[in-house]
Amino acid sequence: MSKTLHNGLQVLELLVTHPQGMSLTEIAEAVGVHRTVAHRLVRTLEAHQLCRRDKFKRISLGTGLVRLAEPVEQDLRTLARPILEELTDATQATAHLVVRENESQVRMLMIVEPHQARMHVSFRPGQMDPIDRGSAGLAILAALPPTTGEREEVTRARERGFAVSHGEISHGIVGISAVVPRSGTEMPISIGLSLFEAPDEDKLGAEVVEAATRLAAQLG
Predict the structure, then answer these.
(1) Of the candidates 44, 141, 187, 193, which lies 20 to 30 Å from 107 by C-alpha distance?
(2) Contact 68/74 with Cβ under 8 angstroms?
(3) From residue 23, how far is each of 39, 55, 138, 198 by CA, in Å?
(4) Residue ranges of the alpha helices (H) in 92-195?
(5) pLDDT at 117
(6) Domains of the chain with CATH codes
(7) 208 in Cβ contact with 178 (< 8 Å)
(8) Any idea where the HTH iclR-type domain is (predicted)?
(9) Chain mean position to CA 148
(10) Smallest Cα–Cα separation from 190: which of 156, 173, 160, 213?
(11) In 10 A of CB 78, how many CB atoms?
């Protein structure tokens, strides 16, 4: 096994769990290498756009990782698109596919907007949100075992089979999401809707759960 490659991958794994960034000294101490070695590792990762430094010299993950993940996520998007399109046609609401990015964040992987609705919610693909805010993250947390101090909304989502949020990501927007049921080793995914009002949360929740179940079957 290549020790240098191993250490470089350790740096990336560390940065995944520290979305706010880390100093070079913190990285060196966590990996167990001299600061000079950590500097070389980071410079190499920077050259491949796998990490970056901000104006305070804190190091975080870089955009090059998105490019590397693209082939894997492309298969997921290909399978999910027709399901999201059917969901948005049935509800006339914006449908979204969200993945867990790290311990504290989720990422909007795909957005499908309704064509016939007079008004609809719009999001930017790639948008990052806190995992404990918004229906997508709450649905993913609800798929995990209960924890002490978890939000009441997570507990409620575990009981209902889908999560509901009100104005947590965007003011005045209702979110309804369900986790895609998969084995514990797979990347957590949720399917959901964003809309201005939800007069029948249970009906919309059932639509979302059905879509999530269909995607799970497609993924195998």
Answers:
(1) 44
(2) no
(3) 10, 12, 30, 45
(4) 135-142, 152-160
(5) 56
(6) 3-62 (1.10.10.10), 68-219 (3.30.450.40)
(7) yes
(8) 2-63
(9) 23
(10) 213
(11) 10
How far apart CA 123 and CA 173 sit, in angstroms, is: 11
CB 180 within 8 A of CB 212: yes
The residue to which tokens 């889908």 are assigned: 162
According to DSSP, the residues that pair with 191 across neighbouring strands are: 97, 178
Tokens of 169: 């990501």
Residue whose C-alpha is closest to residue 177's, from 123, 220, 117: 123
The parts of the chain modelled with pLDDT lower than 50 are none
Q: Which of 156, 166, 160, 157 is closest to 139 using CA atoms?
A: 157
CA gap 195, 198 in Å, rounded: 7
Residues 38/12, Cβ–Cβ less than 8 Å? no
The span from the CA of 122 to the CA of 194, in Å, is 9
Give one word for 57, left, alpha or beta, with left for phi > 0 and alpha for psi -120 to 50. left
Q: pTM of whole model > 0.85? A: no
- pLDDT tens-place string over residues 142-188: 999 999 989 999 999 999 999 999 999 888 889 999 999 976 656 78
pLDDT at 27: 95
For residue 123, give the DSSP letter. Answer: -
d(CA 191, CA 206) in angstroms, rounded, equals: 12
pLDDT of residue 118: 63
| 103 within 8 A of 140, measured Cβ to Cβ | no
> What 3-state DSSP class applies to 190?
strand
